[in-house]
Amino acid sequence: MEFRPPLAQPGPYRFTLALDDSPPHCEFDVALPADKPVNTSRCGMRLELQTRGAALDASIVGLTVGASPKKLHLIVKRGPEAIYDSRIEPEYAAETTSRKESKHFCGQRASVSPLCIRGTSQCAPFQAVCDGPEDCTAGKVCCVSPESGHEYGHKSASQCASSAYCISRLAHIACHTDEDCPSDMSCADTSLATEFKPAIRACRGK
Q1: Do the Cβ atoms of 20 and 77 come closer than 8 Å?
Q2: pLDDT (tens digit, 9 = 90+) per residue, 55-112?
Q3: Considering only CA atoms, which of 97, 98, 101 is closest in space to residue 111?
Q4: Backbone angles phi and psi of 69, in degrees to 5
Q5: CB neighbourhood size of 59 (10 A)
């Protein structure tokens, strides 16, 4: 399964998995940054975490489960806050994975993406670090991209950058008035309002 957005620091995170709504549940804790091996001995199945980055930039981007349930219930919490809570019915590929291809994860295979709980600290609407050029140093704009937030984590959803860099990566320039935008653009794009808190307006071509 793929986590979009990924689980960013700081941790730790508690994972709870229930297969086919049957006890016992599989529970394990993951420190982030990692400081010790993950104990999954109570799960009775092979599990493998996928991470991105290292040290203080590490994040959890996926989890491979060595089982083929008809139903899967996943809960991921950081402290008391639930970040993911999804009930999933995997759709398995027609072709199976041979033991030669994967010693630990052979047989039926499916790729699933649990839904991040809207309004939580790591999910949309993302907490913006800026909502206009007044939040950035001279020569920088507030560059926002909910797509980056979903792909790389909530901290990547908004940042101060040059307007050229922002436009080159197909992101948006946050604004309050037309004066905050390049000369060939106006502050008229409200499509990002539900993706950020506070709601953001963005520049778009005239």
Answers
A1: no
A2: 778 899 999 999 899 999 999 999 999 999 999 999 998 888 888 888 778 888 899 9
A3: 97
A4: -75, 160
A5: 21
Tokens 């060939």 found at: 184
Compute φ and ψ for 87, nearest 5 degrees.
-105, 120
Helix (H) / strand (E) containing 168: helix 163-168
Token output for 204: 């778009």
How far apart (Å, rounded) are the C-alpha atoms in residues 29 and 140?
A: 40
pLDDT digits (tens, 9 = 90+) for 118-131: 999 999 999 999 99
Q: What is the distance between the alpha carbons of residues 202 and 187, in angstroms, rounded to a whole number?
A: 6
Query: Residue 108 is which amino acid?
Result: Q
Q: Identify whether the C-beta of residue 38 lies closer than 8 Å to the C-beta of residue 28.
A: yes
Q: What is the C-alpha separation between 29 and 27, in angstroms, rounded?
A: 7
Tokens 């008035």, located at residue? 177
d(CA 122, CA 150): 9
Residue 162 token pair = 């040059």
Query: How many residues can be counted in the chain?
Result: 206
Interatomic CA distance for residues 177 and 200, integer angstroms: 12
Pull the structure tokens for residue 127.
């907490």
Q: What is the pTM of this model?
A: 0.86
| Rounded CA separation 62/66 (Å) | 13
